[in-house]
Specification:
This protein is largely without helices or strands and about 20 residues long. Helices cover about 0% and strands about 0% of the residues. The chain is globular, with a radius of gyration of 8 Å.
Length: about 20
């Protein structure tokens, strides 16, 4: 997956601490 690239639809795995 693209790390460091902000997307309009963030996935659960892209949210740290969740």
């Amino acid at each position: 997956k693209e790390a460091g690239i902000p997307r309009k639809v963030p996935k659960v795995e892209d949210i740290p601490g969740l």
